[in-house]
Amino acid sequence: MNRNARIALEIIVVIAAILWFRYDYRMEPVALPESNNQAVPTPQQTRLDDSTTPVKYDISFENRAHHEALVTVTFSDLQPQPLELRMSRTSPGRYALHEFAKNVYDVRAVNGKGQQLQISRANPHQWNVAGHDGTVTVTYTIFGDRAGGTYMGVDNSHAHLNIPATFMWARGYHHRPVEIRFRIPDKKWTIATQLAPTSHKESKSE
């Protein structure tokens, strides 16, 4: 094969690869602002309020032998519109989609009076909760058997938690402070975290 034919073949291979990539990942064109006068919304502008009411998480490991954790999260002082709950799709330092929602199941929600709320699945990584009274408590089970820098892993010996892979968050309330309560299942377990401690003692259950 002469040089020109080889170059032509390489060009064809590159074009075919680009076409396959566009088809496989359903690439869509991104709409850019028509002019410099059209500002792109920032996270600050997507806030639904300026409340500093903390989002409270509670995580326990009753079924750790089967690599499960039980997470409960309470959102209070909410705006009246449906609460949009999401699992992250990426993790810091990981340049790929991981779809952490695939490990979440048995999602339930109640209002401030403990009454069951209806949940609709807006997309594979989002749950919408409507008809609340300003408070929503969500409980879900999450599976994890990959202890590393991206996913989470739980077993009888320990729990390795990566926050994007573990905790749901709510659109419009990402600016609020967060409290997490770890329910230690074994006296041999200790907590190692960069989170600042609070005045509450560790909760230990046998």
Could you give a short account of the major beta sheet?
Answer: 6 strands, mixed
Strand sequence of the main sheet, in spatial order?
A: 4-7-2-1-11-12
User: What order do the SSEs take from the amino end to the carboxyl end, as H and E?
Assistant: HEEEEEEEEEHEEE
Q: Which structural class fits the helix and strand makeup?
A: alpha+beta
Q: What are its keywords?
A:
206 residues; alpha+beta; Immunoglobulin-like; 6-stranded mixed β-sheet; 4-stranded antiparallel β-sheet; 2 helices; globular
Task: Describe the structure in your own words.
- The protein has helices at residues 3-24, 163-166, and strands at residues 55-60, 68-75, 83-86, 104-110, 119-123, 126-129, 136-143, 153-154, 159-160, 169-170, 178-184, 203-204.
- The chain has 206 residues and is an alpha+beta fold.
- The strands form 3 sheets. A 6-stranded mixed beta sheet has the order 4-7-2-1-11-12, with no helix packed on it.
- The longest helix is centred in the first third of the chain and has 22 residues, at 3-24.
- The chain is globular.
- The N and C termini lie far apart (73 Å).
